[in-house]
């Protein structure tokens, strides 16, 4: 019974850690999306001139 309770406690700790990691990864992913959107806008504005002069 003690071994089962120990395993149950460890499983709960792992599940809590995974939840925290998922939240952090979602925040990081949103940050990358914002950076990518800004880069796309920058590239579009930069390359608006004629290709040959």
Describe this protein's structure:
By secondary structure, this protein is mainly α. The protein contains 1 helix and no strands. The protein has one helix at residues 2-46. The longest helix has 45 residues, at 2-46. It comes from Lasius niger (Black garden ant). This is Ring finger protein nhl-1.
What's the gist of this structure?
The chain is an all-alpha fold. It contains one helix and no strands. Helix content is 85%, strand content 0%.
Distance between the termini: 81 Å
Largest sheet: none
Q: Kindly provide the radius of gyration, computed on alpha-carbon positions and rounded to a whole number of angstroms.
A: 23 Å
Q: Which ranges are low-confidence, i.e. pLDDT below 50, for 5 or more consecutive residues?
A: none
Number of helices: 1
Helix/strand structural class: mainly alpha
String of helices and strands: H
What is the 3D shape? rod-shaped
Total DSSP E strands: 0
User: Considering DSSP H and I runs of 4 or more, what fraction of the residues is helical?
Assistant: over 70%
Strand content: under 5%
| Mean pLDDT level | 82
Protein name: Ring finger protein nhl-1
Topology, please?
Blueprint: H1 2-46
Organism: Lasius niger
Protein name: Ring finger protein nhl-1
Supply database-style keywords:
mainly alpha; 1 helix; rod-shaped
């Amino acid at each position: 019974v003690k071994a089962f309770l120990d395993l149950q406690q460890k499983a709960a700790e792992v599940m809590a850690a995974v939840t925290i990691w998922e939240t952090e990864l979602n925040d990081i992913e949103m940050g990358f999306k914002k950076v990518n959107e800004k880069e796309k806008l920058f590239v579009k504005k930069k390359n608006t001139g004629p290709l040959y002069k």
